[in-house]
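Postdoc handover notes: sequence design on the structure in folder B. Input tokens:
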């Protein structure tokens, strides 16, 4: 298991540049260059990694303007023409350079362009679909940013900031079928209150500059290497790691400045004869980059030597190795100081990789391969993954910050650009006032107001103020600002002057056609159009071979409690399950429809035959439901025994699958030792591949599932819950602790539960506590061996085997015991330990699996290395000898259970997972997904 994690985040954004009024437009070239040099090469690198079985996991932020341009038919047509021009130039360059050292480079660029064109055609021009495929394969986590990348700290009104966030999220959700889990604040610009806007849209996390987190109050315990929750919103903030940033970004020592890498500033577009270049240029009278760059950086002076791709490739691998080694040393040092695995968040502009640093996409690919093959200290995950593994985080308040020079807002507000804000702030106020005045504008007025909203959003883009500061394309930025400001005023005047749509307005609509769905009322008090329905509950078909009263292990109780909690939240739930003696084929259980197979459907004597009959029967029940008109949004399958039914039902009804994997065959047996175990493992793997999302009850189980099945970003951690009230004895039946010291074990009697270790510890404990008793509550195939050990150890008088207990009898055993002991050798979660903790019973548990999440050693219980009977006896004896210590720990444990393992909270988090696969999202589920 890794000691820490790297979260690589790439933010892809360009301003909305679309000019249908001109056949070719110079600034559209920005978009075409980024596609050719950054976005498509990045997708190709990720696809190669996926093809080679490298479990890459990174985050890609796609801005709404970029998504809009990527989907625009005009721009896609123009990009194809741009590639044709470059291909023709490549052919000319190979002819021109024939017989010179540059000819091989011209051929090199021709091959790269052909590869890019083939990919563009293979995607049918739909690059977001390629990212969606990578997301669904678990390779990337996709997030987004504000509608037009507006810089939030300098907006005057909360309404304007809210619309930037809300329209950004809606644009993303419309393209990818579900809201994003995270959000890139434009320029990492945070101002207090932003977190509540994000929470309202169901966002789980955002990223800030390092000093923004380090200056939080209270001070973050883990610095920038763990997230914090901001206020009481449940939205987490991650911070940029300065060291990893410097190694890539720094203009003096960063990797892109290596002398063997391609020189960005030497391009034939500025060096060859104009008449030769003119047919290939985006403007008839302006030179610009072509991408044909024949020199390497060489040194800091003007002298440049020929670029050698093989030398650059060698440096790519060396720099990837250096970066990884730096992170390894950094994580090992942090792990010694922290009580959890640190996360190093490394966010970069995506355009750095490929456009500015030509070799950047290859560096990312090399880094991912080395992360997987060359070491095991540094893991790779996304911020969303980290929150799943570490949901408990410190709560703080943040102050204003950004990642711009100076750390605050001076890049976007200074004497070069300050004139724009009097206009932007006036437009904000006027848009809000127009919305209040024309609450339900008809026809033409609505059309004008919707376009006015687009013009305000386009004027707010942070790109314009940034360009004015840097002085790179100031004429274009100033022109765009004045155009949007003027168009807004034109539209506002038309609304007030009779709401007339003429040719001028139609031309504005044709040019600025971003956000076709926008409703101007989003600026109103109610927020206009929502990014999701306010409350539309999912319809869930649950498959489980266990369901009360058929209970063999913890699975049946879990499904019962979870489905009941989901029904209380308003979800419509139907459970398909095996027959149970004395129970009807259909019944309502706490608002859940339960359908049981008839007993005659399961006649197989062989275990796998019985499982196959169970699955065929479930498929039949589902078909009967569909024939009666029942409609579902998803299938939730619990463990491999219902995997075949889940696959068949999902295929026939066109539904996504969520799977809860409660345990694995490999984990139960410490490997796969016979044909049956290998068969079960294969079926587990098939279910894991089928599921759009996999729920595991602990970080341990999540890591095991990722390791065994290679499912990466599909996995979500949601703990099991308990009903604390249902564990207490009735008030009219008081039960006190036994007069003699009593230990209690509850669970299945199988080797991995470690009862054999407990019996050995009992033999040691009886020396100091001669009256000590042990109650073993449960049944299973290991019972006879355990009874034999009891006789061998001479413990017959001290050990009682009760068989399976539940309900009132279980509660009485919990009330009478002095210590709960659960010495598991393998434990996906440990629900019985939670039950003991909930009723103030001190616990000692095995230091394995999910129990490491449940019990904090020395705080709310003790953990013992699996198999160590001597240490087990020591810690049990410590609790028996120190009742005050035992009670103190038990009180802390009970408080934890009430806070973290409540079924309502767990149901909400499950609804959040359902939302990820269906696109459905209720307000509460959105909040739950962020917790």
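Designed sequence:
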């Amino acid at each position: 298991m890794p000691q820490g994690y790297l979260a690589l985040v790439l933010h892809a954004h360009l301003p909305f540049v679309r000019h249908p009024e001109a056949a070719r437009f110079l600034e559209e070239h920005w978009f075409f260059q980024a596609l050719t040099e950054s976005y498509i090469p990045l997708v190709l690198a990720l696809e190669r990694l996926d093809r080679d079985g490298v479990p890459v996991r990174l985050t890609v932020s796609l801005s709404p303007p970029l998504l809009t341009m990527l989907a625009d038919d005009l721009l896609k047509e123009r990009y194809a023409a741009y590639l044709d021009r470059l291909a023709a130039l490549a052919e000319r360059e190979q002819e021109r350079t024939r017989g010179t050292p540059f000819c091989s480079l011209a051929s090199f660029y021709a091959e790269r362009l052909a590869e890019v064109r083939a990919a563009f055609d293979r995607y049918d021009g739909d690059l977001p679909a390629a990212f969606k495929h990578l997301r669904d394969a678990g390779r990337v986590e996709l997030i987004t940013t504000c509608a037009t990348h507006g810089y939030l700290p300098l907006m005057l009104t909360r309404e304007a900031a809210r619309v930037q966030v809300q329209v950004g999220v809606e644009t993303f959700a419309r393209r990818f079928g579900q809201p994003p889990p995270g959000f890139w604040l434009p320029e990492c610009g945070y101002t207090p209150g932003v977190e509540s806007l994000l929470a309202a849209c169901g966002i789980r996390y955002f990223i800030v500059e390092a000093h923004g987190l380090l200056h939080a109050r209270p001070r973050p315990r883990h610095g920038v290497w763990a997230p914090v929750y901001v206020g009481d919103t449940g939205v987490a903030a991650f911070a940029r790691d300065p060291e990893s940033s410097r190694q890539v970004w720094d203009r003096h020592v960063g990797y892109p400045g290596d002398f063997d890498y391609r020189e960005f500033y030497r391009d034939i577009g500025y060096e060859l004869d104009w008449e030769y270049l003119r047919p290939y240029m985006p403007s008839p009278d302006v030179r610009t980059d072509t991408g044909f760059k024949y020199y390497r950086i060489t040194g800091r002076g003007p002298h440049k030597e020929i670029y050698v791709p093989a030398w650059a490739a060698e440096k790519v691998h060396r720099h990837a190795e250096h970066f990884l080694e730096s992170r390894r040393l950094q994580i090992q040092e942090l792990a010694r100081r922290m009580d959890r695995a640190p996360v190093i968040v490394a966010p970069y502009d995506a355009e750095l990789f490929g456009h500015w640093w030509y070799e950047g996409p290859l560096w990312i690919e090399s880094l991912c391969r080395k992360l997987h093959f060359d070491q095991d200290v540094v893991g790779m995950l996304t911020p969303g993954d980290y929150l799943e593994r570490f949901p408990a985080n410190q709560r703080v308040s943040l102050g204003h910050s950004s990642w711009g020079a100076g750390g605050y807002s001076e890049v976007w507000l200074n004497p070069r650009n300050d004139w724009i804000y009097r206009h932007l702030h006036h437009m904000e106020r006027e848009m809000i006032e127009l919305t209040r005045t024309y609450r339900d504008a008809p026809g033409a007025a609505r059309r004008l107001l919707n376009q006015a909203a687009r013009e305000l959003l386009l004027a707010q883009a942070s790109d314009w103020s940034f360009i004015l500061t840097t002085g790179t394309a100031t004429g274009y930025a100033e022109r765009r600002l004045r155009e949007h400001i003027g168009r807004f005023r034109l539209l506002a005047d038309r609304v007030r002057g009779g709401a007339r749509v003429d040719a001028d307005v139609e031309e504005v609509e044709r040019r600025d056609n971003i956000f076709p769905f926008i409703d101007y009322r989003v600026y109103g008090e109610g927020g206009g159009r929502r990014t999701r329905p306010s409350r539309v509950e999912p319809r869930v078909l649950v498959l489980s071979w266990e369901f009360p009263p058929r209970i063999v292990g913890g699975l049946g109780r879990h499904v019962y409690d979870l489905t009941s909690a989901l029904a209380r939240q308003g979800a419509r739930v139907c459970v398909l399950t095996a027959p149970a003696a004395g129970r009807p084929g259909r019944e309502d259980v706490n608002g859940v429809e339960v359908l049981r197979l008839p007993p005659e459907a399961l006649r197989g004597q062989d275990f796998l035959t019985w499982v196959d009959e169970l699955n065929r029967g479930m498929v039949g029940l589902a078909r009967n439901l569909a024939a009666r008109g029942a409609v579902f949004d998803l299938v939730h399958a619990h463990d491999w025994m219902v995997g075949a039914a889940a696959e068949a039902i999902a295929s026939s009804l066109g539904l996504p699958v969520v799977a809860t994997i409660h345990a694995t065959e490999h984990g139960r047996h410490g490997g796969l030792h016979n044909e049956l175990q290998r068969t079960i493992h294969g079926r587990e793997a098939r279910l894991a591949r089928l599921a759009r999302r996999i729920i595991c009850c602990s970080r341990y189980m999540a890591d095991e599932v990722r390791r065994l099945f290679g499912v990466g970003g599909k996995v979500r951690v949601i703990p099991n819950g308990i009903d604390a009230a249902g564990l207490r004895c009735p008030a009219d039946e008081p039960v006190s602790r036994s007069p003699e010291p009593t230990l209690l074990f509850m669970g299945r009697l199988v080797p991995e539960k470690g009862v054999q270790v407990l019996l050995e510890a009992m033999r040691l404990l009886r020396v100091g506590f001669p009256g000590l008793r042990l109650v073993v509550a449960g049944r299973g195939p290991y019972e006879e061996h355990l009874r034999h050990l009891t006789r061998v150890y001479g413990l017959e008088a001290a050990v009682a085997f009760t068989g399976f207990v539940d309900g009132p009898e279980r509660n009485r055993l919990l009330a009478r015991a002095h210590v709960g002991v659960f010495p598991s050798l393998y434990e996906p979660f440990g629900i019985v330990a939670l039950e003991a903790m909930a009723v103030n019973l001190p616990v000692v548990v095995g230091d394995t699996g999910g129990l490491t999440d449940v019990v904090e050693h020395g705080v709310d219980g003790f953990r013992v290395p699996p198999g160590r009977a001597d240490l087990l006896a020591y810690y049990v004896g410590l609790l028996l000898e120190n009742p005050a210590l035992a009670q103190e720990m038990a009180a802390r444990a009970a408080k934890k259970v009430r806070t973290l393992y409540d079924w309502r909270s767990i149901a909400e988090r499950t609804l959040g997972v359902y939302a990820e696969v269906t696109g459905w999202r209720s307000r509460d589920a959105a909040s739950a997904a962020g917790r």
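Context for whoever picks this up: Confidence is low (pLDDT under 50) at residues 528-536, 921-931. Don't rerun without checking with the PI first.
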